[in-house]
Specification:
By secondary structure, this protein is α/β, with parallel strands linked by helices. It is built from 13 helices and 12 strands. The chain has 2 domains: 131 residues, Leucine Dehydrogenase, chain A, domain 1 (Rossmann fold); 201 residues, Rossmann fold (3-Layer(aba) Sandwich). The strands form 2 sheets. A 6-stranded mixed beta sheet has the order 1-2-3-5-4-6, with helices on both faces. A 6-stranded parallel beta sheet has the order 9-8-7-10-11-12, sandwiched between helices. Helix 9 links the parallel strand 11 and strand 12. The longest helix is centred in the C-terminal third of the chain and has 26 residues. It is globular and about 60 Å long.
Length: 383
């Protein structure tokens, strides 16, 4: 990118206190570069545990308001995911408004966003970006040429943590699904368990393979025909259904692995009618009412075991946070640790049968953040 482009990059704080998705966010920044029609947002929800960590999402938004809403929801969710995962990172997220007709960001767009990260972190490091929707390892490597505030780029050393976290996210979700099936259905195996998957991309596809190997019966939907072809080539037996039909497929487990907000009241009732007893998937912000948690409460009333998203899909961000560490050790930690933390949430729920799982999980994660905030306040008072 030419030097004069850098001079045109602007980073401004966005007032969000009156936004309906405002949840005590610390800062939200807008990054612009007019010559390239670039608009991006970075949301910093909470840094009590450390700098915010969360993916960079490249998506076609209808308008800036929709992009801002997304970054607010996603950054808040990352606070609790990172806290529940035991990470010394707070919650942050960033989005780039996709250029019309481009399903991947250009090198110029990546460099502009990277320069924005440099400006935001100039005086105090508050955010590290990572892989998310339509952001590849190539994109992260490219951004690292401009900014150090990136986690999850590639490495030539196969023995250290680096690269795409999606397979690890699937491993964590798979482990939690086994815990849920044991808890709800009393079965030690997924053999013969009917699972409907909403999305079989990077994470959902790996999850489908793990489920197939375990003997689960699979139905799935996805906007990409190539995703089905890929699984077929790998001999994964899976029945394709329509995007809306997925809610009516007879299943024991529903796995939302695509975009957030698909767990609406109507869709949950359809899942219940289809026999679904467990909801466990990799998508972020699965509930339509993520702040109020009303869908989790509805599932609780209907007898559906809801596996809170930021508990069960935390393996990816944990992998990213541990870049440079021993890959084998971290993989084993994720394989055991993510399901263990979900078991801890279920144990807490046993003592409060009247409460829904999302509220239990929220309390589980919030305690760690609140303890960190309390220590900060004590330190500032004695300093």
């Amino acid at each position: 990118m030419a030097k004069d482009f850098k001079e045109n990059i602007r980073v401004s704080e966005v007032p969000v206190e009156n936004h309906p998705q405002f949840m005590d966010h610390e800062n939200v920044y807008k990054i612009t570069e007019p010559d390239n029609n670039f608009i991006g947002f970075v949301g910093i929800h909470n840094t009590a545990l450390g700098p915010g960590l969360g993916g960079i999402r490249y998506k076609a938004y209808k308008n800036e308001a929709e992009a801002l809403t997304d970054v607010l929801r996603l950054s808040e969710a990352m606070t609790w995911k990172n806290a529940a995962g035991g990470l010394d990172h707070g919650g942050g997220k960033s989005v780039i408004m996709a250029y019309k007709g481009q399903d991947r960001p250009s090198d110029v767009a990546l460099e502009i966003m990277a320069e924005g990260f440099n400006i935001i972190n100039k005086n105090n490091v508050v955010y590290y970006g990572a892989e998310d929707m339509n952001i590849s390892e190539y994109a992260l490597d490219k951004m690292l040429e401009t900014t150090p505030y990136i986690k999850g780029a590639t490495s030539e050393d196969a023995n250290v943590v680096s690269g795409n976290p999606s397979p690890l996210t699937a491993v964590g979700v798979f482990g939690c699904m086994k815990v849920a099936v044991k808890n709800k259905l009393g079965k030690d195996s997924l053999q013969g368990i009917r699972v409907s998957l909403q999305g079989i991309g990077a994470v959902g596809g790996t999850l489908a393979k793990l489920l197939h190997e375990e003997g689960a019966i699979l139905h799935a939907t996805d906007t990409s025909a190539a995703a089905f072809e890929k699984l077929k080539a790998e001999n994964v037996e899976i029945q394709k259904v329509g995007l809306d039909e997925i809610y009516d497929v007879e299943a024991d487990v529903f796995a939302p692995n695509a975009i957030g907000g698909t767990l609406t009241d109507e869709n949950i009732k359809r899942l219940k009618s289809a026999g679904v007893q467990i909801v466990c998937g990799a998508a972020n912000n699965q509930q339509a009412d993520q702040i109020g948690g009303s869908q989790s409460k509805l599932m609780h009333r209907l007898g559906i075991l809801y596996c809170p998203d930021y508990i069960v899909n935390a393996a990816g961000v944990i992998w990213v946070a541990k870049v440079g560490e021993n890959a084998e050790q971290v993989t084993q930690e994720l394989r055991e640790g993510v399901p263990k933390r979900f078991e801890e949430v279920l144990k807490l729920a046993e003592a409060h049968p009247e409460r829904d799982l999302a509220s239990i999980a929220s309390e589980y994660a919030r305690k760690r953040v609140e303890d960190a905030q309390s220590r900060q306040e004590q330190h500032s008072q004695t300093a």
